[in-house]
Every structure is written in structure tokens, then in C-alpha cells.
Amino acid sequence: MWREDRVAALLDGAGAEPLLVSGAPSNLGVFLDRFQAVVLLSAPLDVLLARVTTRTTNDFGRSADDRSRIASDLVTVEPLLRRVATHELDTTRPLADVVDDLQSIVRALPA
Fold first, then answer.
1. Residues 6 or more apart from 107 whose CB is under 8 A from it?
2. Predicted model pTM
């Protein structure tokens, strides 16, 4: 969960530059009307599992319980996120392409 007081303060203090926020907390709905875009970054389960088991910056995903949770969330949480997303980007593509698409989304937002 996001700390609502802190996220509200962050959003209240956002200036003219785009503010990109990452996460899918259970209380995301509290803030949905404050976002101009919601982008779902998606990938198939095998890709997600390969990524979390080989990364060196975070241990989440290495245990069987973690991998089970990821699989479960993909089935139960991702469809909910897809319903509120204004855009979906397939992250199996090269990172530069995903970043270019994300930048295009930001540029297309009203000032």
C-alpha cells in the first residue's frame, strides 16, 4: 500500500514537469483520478520469472513462494490493472523501444 498522505503530498507538489510514479498498490484507486495516464508494463510469466531470478538488485522472486505469488498476481491483479490502464506496453521488446513509447505517451499528455 502507498502511504496516502505522502503520495497526496507528492502529487500536490508536482510541478510543470511530468511526474512518473511506479507501483500497483492495493490503494491505487484512491489516486486514479489524479493521474493523466496509467501505463501497464506487461510481460508473460516466463519472462517475469526469468527476470526476477537473474537480477542482482533484489531478492524477491528467488523463492518458490515468491514465484508462486508472481504467477498468482499475473492472473488476479494484472486484469484489474489492465482495466484502469490508459496504455499497455509489452516489455518483451527492447528497452529503448519501451522507453520511446513511454516518452511518446508523456509528450501526448495535455499540458
1. none
2. 0.87
46-97 confidence digits (pLDDT tens): 999 999 999 999 999 999 999 999 999 999 999 999 999 999 999 999 999 9
CA distances from 95 to 8, 34, 101 (A): 30, 27, 10
Residue 81 cell numbers, joined: 490493472
11 Cβ contact partners less than 8 Å away, ≥ 6 residues apart: 19, 31, 34
Going by C-alpha positions, the residue among 93, 78, 87, 92 that lies closest to residue 106 is 87
Cα–Cα dist 2/59, whole Å: 21
End-to-end alpha-carbon separation of the chain, Å?
Answer: 29
CA gap 39, 88 in Å, rounded: 5
Residue 33: DSSP 8-state: G
